[in-house]
Amino acid sequence: MNAKYDFVGKSRSFFKTSWLDLNEVEEFIQFLEQYIIPNLKDKTEKKQSTTYIFNSKEISFNFYIEKNTRRISIYLKDYGVIDNEHYFWTESQVNKIPELLDVLKKIK
Asked: I want to staple 31 with a disulfide (CB 3.0 to 4.6 A). Which of 38, 51, 54, 92 is the partner?
């Protein structure tokens, strides 16, 4: 992850790497198939939300649903501890999760 951001007029950047180990790919595929794909179109009631979390050694993949909003967040880990300052989130790429699943199946 290579990110640059501005906060209160100060520009910061960082570079970090994290990996999904090959022996974790099958478990990630199962997580996507069982929890994410069936719930891609789900909605929640007012003041309710649902979060599905996959933890690997170096990342935490979160799928969050609130009302009509769905979001993916990927948190990096430092020696197994989630780094809450360095993460990526997107709402626009949620519909591409089936493509991610296809790629993971080819890797496996």
From this structure: 54
